[in-house]
Design goal:
Helices cover about 40% and strands about 20% of the residues. It is of the alpha+beta class and about 425 residues long. Helix 10 runs antiparallel to helix 11 and helix 12 (about 265-285) runs antiparallel to helix 13 (about 325-340).
Length: about 425
């Protein structure tokens, strides 16, 4: 197997059964018991604890089909609570930022960390420190996979979750260790290799990760595409595959930036956030998707102990899923008013769009919601704006505007807003 020495060390930190873990943080009595999270209409399984997985219940299984298993095993069911999950995600990601100068959020429960020169001389101990700190700070269990490329870090994370003897942390910087692992892992576990591609590879006699790593990139590119060819190179320690070149099913869209100078005024943050919302909304429309939940966050420079520190996030559920930039900016601006505090030097802010679904998915409409019936006009306006901006970059920008609405979740099994509402904070009673 080819191997190119590389001093780069990347880590993928991935939460274990994230939605379920979020529910268990505030219900420790459910640790070790079967727990599942359902879709917004409580119709299908979208997250399962290991106990539920062991019953043979698959992701996306309709509830009515396994009602007998639910009753027999006393499975605890929760409605999706994206406000809680988004807030817990923000806490996890904020905790990870103290371990690396560069953190790239990949999804609501995953982040890449650039640990190059940071975790020497004992990467495993550093990974264990990350694990322990995240759990202590948030209650969320995570696993850490390390390697010289993102694909290898993903593979290491898979192994760290699958084999308990790793202690939840695995480093694949060593070529011999990589090869031993690759021999026993199926090729369909490689990041970016879908079921169809895996089936084609199998027909060519490529069954394990090692089989794929031994292929010539040029040959693979001729038979598949450049992405699979670059994956082969990544498996050999040659970093060449950018994160954006792998398009997973989006669970969320995050757009944030660190400012070139510190911002202190509300208006400045509002303008920056409006720009971020516009970019996030553009990504929604590129994928023909809509969002049903918006989270904004802001923070000061956590690495400057000489300045007062402050970080907050706020979330809102939308009455109707949307891809309209105006609505997203309006909600974000309202949330910013709730969390902004004077007297701080803000280094970073951002927006997170979650509860993302195809725009073509049917949705129950409110007969008294005028905005729901304005969807067609909104879609045409956004399409026109995108066309203009593609031809004349940054030709149209939407300023932040006020927006007010009540976003009460309608799910029947939703848990409390433990972290986002003072009235629903956990109450601890001492005997």
């Amino acid at each position: 197997m080819r191997s190119t020495p590389c001093k780069t060390r990347l880590a993928l930190v991935d939460a274990n059964n994230f939605y379920v873990s979020c529910e268990r943080v505030f219900r420790p009595d459910l640790i070790g018991k079967p727990v599942a999270v359902l879709s917004n209409n409580d119709g299908i399984f979208v997250a399962r604890s290991q106990e539920v997985k062991d019953f043979g219940i698959k992701m996306g299984t309709p509830v009515f089909k396994v009602r007998h298993l639910i009753n027999r095993h006393k499975i605890h069911l929760f409605s999706s609570h994206y406000g809680l999950y988004a807030d817990m995600s923000a806490r996890v990601m904020s905790t990870l930022e103290q371990f690396a100068p560069n953190v790239e959020v990949y999804s609501i429960d995953e982040a890449f960390l650039d640990l190059t020169g940071v975790c020497d001389p004992d990467p495993i101990a550093y990974g264990q420190q990350i694990k322990k700190t995240v759990f202590r700070a948030t209650g969320i269990p995570v696993c850490v996979g390390m390697g010289p490329t993102k694909t290898l870090a993903k593979l290491a994370n898979f192994a760290a979750k699958k084999w308990k003897q790793t202690g939840g942390v695995l480093d694949l910087a060593d070529a011999e260790r990589r090869e031993r692992l690759m021999r026993i892992v199926s090729v369909d576990e490689v990041w970016g290799i879908g079921s169809r591609t895996a089936a084609r590879l199998n027909r060519l006699g490529i069954h394990t990760v090692l089989d794929l790593a031994k292929q010539e990139p040029d040959r693979i590119q001729d038979q598949f595409n450049v992405v699979v060819a670059r994956t082969v190179m990544e498996l050999n320690g040659i970093a060449c595959l950018e994160l954006e070149e792998i398009a997973p099913d989006k669970q969320q869209i995050i757009y944030s930036r660190s400012f070139s100078r510190r911002l202190t005024e509300y208006q400045e943050l509002s303008e920056a956030l409006a720009a971020f919302c516009s970019r996030a909304a553009e990504k929604l429309r590129v994928h023909n998707s809509v969002t049903g939940y918006i989270t904004i966050f802001l923070r000061t420079n956590l690495f400057n102990p000489k300045e007062p520190q402050y970080q907050r996030s706020a979330s809102a559920r939308l009455p109707a899923a949307t891809q309209d930039t105006r609505v997203i900016i309006g909600v974000a601006n309202r949330l910013l008013k709730e969390v902004f505090r004077e007297g701080y030097n803000y280094q970073k802010c951002g927006v997170q769009l979650s509860h993302i679904q195809p725009a073509t998915l049917p949705e129950q409409m409110d007969l008294f919601d005028r905005e729901a019936f304005a969807h067609t006009e909104s879609e045409k306006l956004m399409q026109a704006m995108d066309q203009i901006n593609r031809r004349f970059p940054k030709g149209i920008a939407i300023a932040a505007v006020g927006f007010d609405h009540d976003w009460r979740p309608k799910a029947e099994r939703i848990s409390k807003r433990y972290t986002t509402d003072w009235r629903e904070l956990v109450i601890v009673k001492a005997n």
